[in-house]
Specification:
The chain is mainly alpha-helical and 507 residues long. Helix content is 65%, strand content 0%.
């Protein structure tokens, strides 16, 4: 039954799910006595479900029996990120009442792509029920990309999987045999039934842990959904305004580790011969960054403290160290939460506005087939292996590489594809920065906006610059460009280029 349902276009299924989810903030608004917001969500949900049922009945005949291909699912995914926010924005626009529909659309694109940038960051600007809708949309977007990475992108050698397989991007690979045996609809159903309960269970577990730490149930739910989706959405302006303190941050820190490697929940296309999470290059590289960047920040302070014989306050040292470690992992996973001790870490390191560091972390991003954005750790690892081998050849021109089969493939073909992706990412970043500059942004603001969109790290616009960028002050053209950047960052330019390849559409 599920596989038959998934024969319909993906965007139609997602619209139906969105209609059902709208009843959650409706119930929340009713419990708060906010009838206007409740009516906005209730009417929008009923309208969407009615349209989905009508369209589904019209397609239930011959067209529904046709098998949806991977290319069609990828195209539907693109349309979902572009068009579905038009529907998601309807109850948000009606609920806010004092904003434009473009602003509501922008907000939903930001949430659905798990970017988390918001036009309504002023406390009290929107009600808690609308904050809940932002979190639900972001959480749903995280689940969608989590499932799509394994069910749609992996069989097409996209989304970072192209680094470890022999096939060209957009083509199937014989190594993914289990994907070939199942039809696209059945594969999508199987992976949804496998990963969906894991995603829901992890979110529920974090929600309970945060409530046990003293956080209010509503705030804990929003932060739990934002952590699992790496959207960084908060109803109170960030973790630093919460009451769970170190215990809550430590729990979120543990759950953010899921964004460093797909091997925390899957075992597809393992890039090394030796099995296990500890041998995964993505996970090890991520841990190296999380440990190394705070150490560099503290080394800068220790050198200065040694010169002036500044006595060490060990309580302040540990507090600042934790703030740096948590924030580094948060931005590396493209979540963008800041620790309550991050200000202490900045004071300790002497870097008042460490924008380049946070931008670099967001640029690298998390693991392949996770909810994190960015270039991805596996691509960085492939470029590192290739660079290491080239240095060896400069020193010993006649040397022979010692890597095994998977390592050799990553170092050669994988590094080549990773470099192509990096160049596409850099060219897209340059183009978006130039266009945003044409719409009146300074170079610094345009660069931060473009990078935050492409890396799906919305909080970067407040943390990376000395003066936070106010999205509400952007013109309509700049908002549309930024929304485009978020969609490009979520699906990746290489996947969009693959859709233009005629061979992808051949059965």
């Amino acid at each position: 039954m599920t596989a038959r349902l998934l024969r319909f276009p993906l965007i139609l299924i997602l619209a139906g799910v969105a209609g059902l989810l709208m009843f959650l903030p409706m119930v929340d608004a009713l419990m708060r006595g906010d009838t206007s917001v409740a009516l906005a969500f209730g009417n929008s949900g009923l309208l969407g479900l009615a349209l989905v049922v009508v369209i589904g009945l019209a397609m239930s005949g011959r067209d529904a029996a046709r098998e949806m291909t991977d290319a069609q699912n990828l195209a539907s995914l693109l349309l979902a990120y572009l068009l579905l926010p038009l529907y998601l924005a309807l109850p948000f626009y009606e609920g806010v009442e004092t904003t434009t529909y473009l602003n509501a659309y922008f907000e939903m694109v930001s949430s659905f792509t798990t970017t988390g940038a918001t036009l309504f960051g002023v406390p009290g600007r929107i009600t808690d029920s609308l904050h809940l809708w932002r979190a639900i949309v972001g959480w749903s977007g995280g689940l969608l990309i989590w499932i799509s990475a394994s069910a749609v992108l992996a069989p097409m050698s996209l989304g970072g999987f192209e680094v470890t397989v022999r096939a060209e991007p957009g083509q199937d690979d014989a190594l993914l045999g289990r994907f070939q045996r199942a039809s696209p609809a059945r594969r999508l159903a199987q992976i949804t039934l496998t990963l969906g309960p894991v995603y829901i269970g992890l979110t529920a577990a974090l929600w309970i842990i945060l409530m046990a730490g003293g956080e209010r149930a509503f705030v804990a739910a929003v932060h739990a959904m934002s952590t699992m989706s790496t959207s960084g959405i908060s109803s109170i302006g960030g973790l630093q305004n919460g009451v769970s303190g170190f215990a809550g941050e430590f729990a979120i820190f543990l759950f953010l580790i899921f964004s460093l490697s797909r091997l925390t929940f899957s075992s597809d296309t393992v890039p090394t011969v030796r099995q296990g999470l500890l041998y995964d290059p993505e996970f090890r590289l991520g841990l190296m960054i999380v440990a190394g960047v705070p150490m560099l920040l503290f080394l800068r302070h220790w050198i200065g403290a040694y010169e002036v014989a500044d006595p060490a306050d060990w309580a302040g040292v540990l507090s600042a160290l934790w703030g740096a470690v948590f924030t580094v992992l948060s931005f590396l996973s493209t979540t963008g939460f800041e620790s309550a001790d991050w200000q202490a870490a900045r004071d300790w390191s002497g870097l008042k506005t460490p924008g380049l560091i946070l931008m670099g972390l967001a640029l690298v991003g998390g693991g392949v087939a996770t909810t994190a954005g960015g270039v991805k750790l596996l691509r960085v690892y492939a470029l590192y292996l290739h660079g290491q081998r080239e240095v060896e050849r400069l020193i010993h021109p006649s040397s022979v590489g010692r890597a095994s089969g998977p390592g050799r493939r990553i170092r050669r073909q994988g590094a080549y594809i990773a470099w192509i992706f990096f160049m596409l990412f850099a060219l897209t970043l340059t183009a978006l920065t130039a266009v945003l500059a044409l719409f009146g942004q300074t170079f610094e603001s345009a660069l931060i906006l473009a990078l935050s969109g492409l890396s799906t790290t919305g909080p970067l616009i407040h943390a990376a610059s000395e003066e936070p960028i106010r999205l509400a002050q952007l013109g309509e053209g700049a908002k549309l460009v930024y929304a485009t950047a978020m969609v490009l960052g979520r699906l990746e330019t290489l996947a969009l280029i693959a859709l233009l390849n005629p061979t992808v559409w051949r059965d």
